[in-house]
Write a structure and sequence with these properties.
heterotrimer, A mainly alpha (364), B alpha/beta (519), C alpha/beta (346), B: Rossmann fold, globular, C: 346 residues, alpha/beta, Rossmann fold, six-stranded parallel beta sheet, six-stranded mixed beta sheet, 12 strands, 19% strand
């Protein structure tokens, strides 16, 4: 037995790569077969997908990163909440609440200085997102109502509120279309690089990711969030602190970040609030966060992966003539493949951790 | 006669660790076979291999003479192997009947209901085994012994040829242990082979016909129980050299009766407190002095949990007065999920206790360097094997985990330390180490904490305590020094005292509003 | 973190697997279309897609289509098409106006057409569909054939173009029967078939017996509600909208207010090729691009005398002697494309 000890080790190291490659190849094969069945060239379609996401600086910076921005912010919101075992499915609603509040401030406050208006609108959006999250937080901590249901239901309330407001009180002053007035220039987030659409919101997302990482890894407050997430009972018994304030904090900060996501999208890209502002970023955010294993810095990467997928999807339609429904199907396949690969890696990591204790040391 | 179970050269690896290393084992039909060893010796792994829950990496497994496909729980079950785990696998909200029916496929109708006659079959089987079970009570409202009997009945409903019990006595009072063994003898007499995994030598010797000792995954010896002494077995379990002096039951060292240090560090006066599950506290009074160990005996679920959380300051009394220090150490009963977080490193688990302390902060930041230093010191001091600040707690063995928790709570220290079954599930060496630490701590003179030792292990209580009280149904009954023996305390534990059976306390408690003061 | 990074190289690997050449520019004239919904809706979006294909066939130009999902996609799609050399880009819906105005500034050589748009500029051309004129004629038919005097309208999302058709429809009804009651419901969606059915059924219960819709893809539910009312023993008529839907539900439709989007698109593309395209474009009854078409399968549904009066009204509208009420949402051509200006760059 012992003379063969080298063999299993090599095999164990290769296994993740093999598993990942197999999952990806299988997905590619399925997607290619589907495309071919639909009369589209898989090579052209995948080429378009890749080019649309990474083909040029314009595509990467102005399309992929722009698409990644709302996913990054909502992904961070979800990651923080999940870290505390707060299953916030309500990033979508908090996003809408934040967007509405930001727009309301932007169109109603007569300030012409961006230095005043931008921070004011960002604060309003964060506060609105937190407020939206506070309802499920109160129901969970006071009445023991599970937040999965309440945060989800609050999404619908937010969507209907947005619908009502753009049809009524916040409708553009001409009163024709169901949208708000365009926000003044002072409330628009500046772009980062001349000639590219990428705006300050992406940088804000990165900063929040770094801040969250430091908070979780290096501060007593962040440690409490992780402890509650790891075991609420151990937090109480061995940590000797009440979990309720920690749960509140997770809800509020998560909601605030999701609220920022909504307003940042309006302020940086659309410049108006519409119905249907988000195609479900608050839900995709869950995949972004889980794929990042709730690590804030990893969420930057996973958000970009999802942004690239979305950017590539548009190009697939334009260049390869693949209809949108097909594109969505292929996007879903790719997400499945990535999640499968991730799961394979996770399992192997866990096995490795059991074998050698040192492998399991990770802090955040 | 064909062996009920036969293992030949069975090896099971977890990563680099060989949990079982070419082990041979044989179980005859109708015998009770004690399986002994320190924690991590491979006892549970062996039982799980037999039950088909783990696939061995090498070796052959035969059940009833038939070669078994490796690691098939379904096949093992079909061949009549049943296992009662240390942590029961019962659905808390279901009644005893529902739990038994749920886990026995032959109880089901094709459409997913329960056969009409199954209730009768359960009752008949319970009567046959003379197993008193509560079929209509939800499991969550049962005591530990009742739960265990449901678990055993569940395992014995089918055609069971092999019954594996993992540490079944750990949670029982002495009298209950006797009852369990009586049942097991009847089961064995009917031809079922029983593997009794345990670490209490005297119990195993009392119940088993043969014993096998494992050490670090290797087979050490198999003997007739009649032809071996506890001492020999202990030596076999540990390896060389006697630690028998420190063994449970190996002579209780009753601490001196001289006057304890005067300062009272914690006091409860007529405290009542509700509990979400199990018994709360009903008019409990006690006082703990510096440097003394107050032992609280009792069958699990009689309010010990509530007492611990009141003493640790986690729960405020509903009535009465509690004079407590600002911080108390608490070694909780459940390691996993209470005393520690498996996914956290040792440093992070230490941080649970110290993260709010100024000494471990630098500005707004948690000073991880400081925490890791404390964790490293703790690992050395408590002999946490294969431990380092960066090692995940979940990768440690149970005993090492408990050493870490105990060390951390010593670190938290303060004036009061509540130790709740601190050596439950620990191997002999670790048990001795933890008990030594507790007694040593109590000898720290002016800086010694008062220690409340809550344990269901009567030997432990008798060995360590200066004073002893018994918890029964939320009340605390002091035990006078002359009654510091297993028989008298066991009687109190089973509630005999509450019906006036035990002397001086009976009349006091029957008076409304009367206070019971332990010590 | 480190462990995580290990699987990242897979992502570009995955993308690069299918990579062909990297030139994305098209050769020769090219026309693109953006829709915000599926082109399988048998209505608004389908008409545009059909128009795009006719442009490809009759003008011999390269064509491409993208279904956008969010406002962020609008800019991206316009820019990507413009960058790839497309000279004419249709944004099929008012929601594209802002993005088209921004793109129009950035790409002065590219022409952007916005269906139901509101802000014309040198190279941004809104098309104003005069569907309300046809809707007025349908309203006349409905006002004439209702027995109960109650007429229903089921709309999708309350946007000006949809609202405008209903205002005109109501005026048409009142022109034939002054005391008629007109019910209006917007279901807030273009594709919620069951909501459309429910809304129509509710109006039928309130006594309506001549109903028109403007719910695009959800119209299947609308027609089904009318059909079920008939099966329940009530006489009721439905009117189609946008496309000639007479063959979608020939059993219950009296006629359709039709907009010939393909024809308008082809005309627009021709004008663009000839260099004569200027906005905003109005396309009413006079251009022949919209009309009221009685259902040939139900010859008696609209009585001949009524058809005569409708014919007369058509003539008067073309001669601008009847002013059909609607909503005017075109802004003056002057000024900054986006009212608030572009954001600063930092």
């Amino acid at each position: 037995m012992s003379d063969q000890s080298g063999t299993p080790r090599v095999r164990a190291d290769l296994r993740p790569a093999l598993g990942a490659a197999a999952a990806l190849l299988a997905t590619m094969a399925i997607a290619a077969a589907l495309l071919a069945l639909g009369g589209h060239s898989p090579a052209v379609a995948f080429g378009a997908l890749a080019r649309g996401a990474f083909g040029s600086w314009h595509n990467f910076i102005s399309v992929t990163l722009v698409q990644a921005t709302p996913l990054l912010l909502t992904g961070l919101a979800v990651a923080l909440a999940f870290k505390a075992r707060v299953w916030n499915i309500g990033a979508e609603g908090q996003l809408h609440a934040g967007a509405l509040a930001g727009v309301a401030v932007a169109v109603s406050v007569p300030a012409s200085s961006a230095f005043l208006l931008l921070p004011a609108t960002l604060l309003a959006a964060a506060a609105a997102g937190a407020l939206w999250a506070s309802v499920p937080a109160a129901m969970k901590t006071r009445m023991g109502v599970g937040e999965v249901i309440t945060t989800l239901l609050m999404n619908f309330v937010a969507l209907f509120l947005a619908q009502f407001l753009v049809h009524g009180p916040l409708r553009e002053s001409r009163g024709v279309f169901n949208q708000t007035d365009a926000i003044p220039a002072a409330a628009q987030l500046p772009t980062l690089i001349p000639g590219f659409r990428l705006h300050l919101g992406f940088l804000i997302g990165i900063l929040i990711a770094v801040a969250l990482w430091l908070y979780l890894a290096r501060t007593p407050g962040g440690f409490r969030i992780r402890a509650v997430g790891a075991s609420p009972r151990a937090a109480e018994v061995s940590g000797r602190f009440r979990t309720t304030p920690v749960i509140w904090r997770a809800f509020l900060v998560s909601g605030a970040i999701a609220g920022l996501a909504g307003w940042i999208q309006v302020s940086g890209i659309t410049h108006r609030m519409y119905e249907g502002l988000s195609p479900g970023w608050g839900y995709t955010a869950i995949a972004v966060a889980l794929l990042a294993r709730l690590h804030p810095l990893a969420a930057v990467l996973t958000a970009i992966v999802f942004g690239a997928l979305s950017a590539g999807g548009g190009a697939m339609q334009r260049e390869a003539g693949v209809p949108d429904v097909w594109v969505r199907g292929i996007e879903a396949l790719v997400i499945l493949a990535v999640l499968t690969v991730d799961r394979v890696l996770q399992t192997i990591d866990r096995r490795a951790a059991r074998g050698s204790p040192r492998a399991a040391h990770s802090r955040a | 006669m064909t062996a009920a179970v036969s293992l030949r050269g069975v090896t099971k690896r977890f990563g680099a660790l060989r949990a079982l290393d070419a082990v041979d084992f044989e179980l005859a039909p109708g015998e009770i076979h004690g399986l002994l060893g320190e924690n991590g010796a491979g006892k549970t792994t062996l039982a799980r291999v037999v039950a088909g829950l783990l696939a061995p990496d090498a070796g052959r497994v035969q059940i009833g003479g038939r070669e078994v496909r490796l690691g098939s729980a379904a096949e093992a079950r079909a061949l009549g192997v049943a296992m009662v785990h240390q942590h029961f696998s019962l659905v808390p909200r279901f009644t005893g009947f529902e739990n038994v029916a749920l886990f026995n496929a032959e109880a089901w109708t094709p459409r997913g209901g329960v056969r009409d006659d199954y209730r009768g079959r359960i009752e008949a089987r319970a009567a046959e085994l003379r197993l008193p079970v509560q079929l209509d009570v939800p499991v969550e409202r049962m005591g530990v012994a009742d739960r265990q009997r449901i678990e055993i009945l569940k395992a014995l409903m089918g055609e069971t040829r092999v019954l594996l019990l993992d540490e079944p006595t750990a949670v029982l009072a002495p009298q209950e242990v006797e009852g369990l063994f009586a049942v097991l003898r009847r089961v064995a007499a009917a031809g079922t082979g029983i593997v009794l995994v345990a670490h209490k030598l005297d119990e195993v010797l009392a119940a088993a016909g043969r014993v096998t000792v494992l050490r670090r995954g290797r087979w050490v010896l198999t003997r007739e129980a009649g032809g071996v002494t506890a001492r020999e077995l202990a030596d076999a379990m540990v390896g060389v050299g006697g630690v028998a002096a420190g063994l449970p039951g190996g002579g209780s060292v009753l601490a001196g009766q001289e006057a304890p240090a005067p300062a009272i560090v914690a006091e409860l006066k007529d405290v009542s407190a509700a509990s979400v599950s199990g018994a709360g506290l009903r008019g409990v009074s006690l006082a703990v002095r510096r440097g003394e160990i107050l032992g609280i005996a009792g069958v699990g679920g009689n309010g010990q949990r509530t007492l611990a959380s009141v003493l640790a300051g986690l729960q405020a009394p509903d009535a009465g007065e509690a004079v407590l220090p600002a911080e108390a150490g608490w070694i909780p009963q459940e390691r996993d999920g209470e005393g520690l977080v498996n996914d956290f490193t040792i440093a992070e688990n230490v941080a649970l206790a110290v993260h709010a302390k100024g000494a471990y902060r630098r500005g707004p930041w948690l000073d991880w360097a400081e925490v890791e230093e404390a964790a490293a010191a703790l690992v050395g001091e408590m002999d946490v094997r294969s431990g380092a600040p960066g090692v995940a707690a979940g990768t440690l063995s149970g005993g090492n985990q408990q050493k870490m928790v105990a060390g951390r709570e010593f670190l938290r220290s303060g004036k009061l330390l509540v130790a709740e079954s601190p050596t439950r599930g620990l191997d002999v060496k670790a048990t001795v180490a933890v008990r030594e630490r507790i007694t040593a701590l109590a000898k720290h003179g002016d800086r010694a904490p008062g220690i409340v030792l809550i344990s269901t292990d009567l030997d432990e209580i008798l060995e360590l305590s200066d004073r002893i009280a018994v918890m029964v149904r939320g009340r605390l009954i002091p035990v006078p020094p002359e009654d510091h023996n297993p028989a008298a305390i066991g009687e109190l534990m089973l509630g005999a005292g509450s019906r006036g059976g035990v002397r001086h306390q009976a009349d006091a408690r029957d008076r409304p509003g009367a206070r019971e003061t332990a010590g | 973190m480190i462990r995580y990074l290990r699987c990242l190289p897979i992502v570009p690997l995955m993308f690069s697997a299918g990579c062909g050449g990297d030139s994305t520019a098209v050769d020769g004239p090219a026309v693109a279309l953006l829709t915000s919904g599926p082109v399988s809706d048998a209505g608004w979006h389908a008409g545009a897609y059909e128009g795009l294909q006719m442009i490809g066939d009759s003008l011999g130009v390269h064509i491409s289509h993208q279904q956008t999902r969010t406002p962020a996609d609008f800019d991206e799609a316009f820019i990507s098409y413009a960058e790839s050399g497309y000279g004419l880009i249709f944004g099929h819906g008012f929601e594209y106006q802002d993005a088209a105005s921004r793109a129009g500034e950035a790409y002065p050589d590219v022409t952007f057409v916005v269906s139901s748009g509101s802000r014309p500029s040198a190279n941004v051309v809104p098309i104003i569909f005069g569907l309300h004129e046809a809707s007025y004629l349908a309203g006349m038919a409905a006002g004439a054939i209702t027995a109960s005097g109650i007429v229903g309208m089921v709309g999708g999302v309350e946007i000006p173009s949809a609202k405008g058709t209903f205002i005109a429809f109501e005026a048409g009804v009142k022109a034939m029967r002054e005391d008629a009651t007109v019910l209006e419901t917007f279901i807030g969606s273009w594709d919620d078939v069951s909501a459309a059915k429910e809304a129509a059924a509710a109006q039928l219960r309130q006594g309506a017996d001549a109903l028109i819709h403007n719910v695009d893809a959800a119209s299947f539910g609308f027609f089904q509600a009318v059909r079920e009312a008939r099966e329940g023993g009530r006489m009721a008529w439905a009117f189609g909208m946008n496309r000639d839907q007479n063959d979608v539900a020939p059993d219950v439709i009296a006629g359709s207010a039709v907009i010939n989007i393909p024809q308008i698109f082809v005309q627009t593309a021709r004008a663009w090729q000839d260099g004569t395209l200027e906005g905003p474009l109005y396309t009413g009854l006079a251009t022949g691009a919209v009309d009221f078409v009685p259902n040939p399968a139900q010859p008696g549904a609209v009585p001949p005398m009524v058809l005569v009066r409708i014919e007369e009204a058509r003539r008067l509208i073309i001669e601008e002697k009847i002013d059909v009420p609607s909503i005017d949402f075109v802004e003056p051509a002057a000024g900054d494309p986006v009212a608030a200006g572009d954001p600063p760059t930092c």
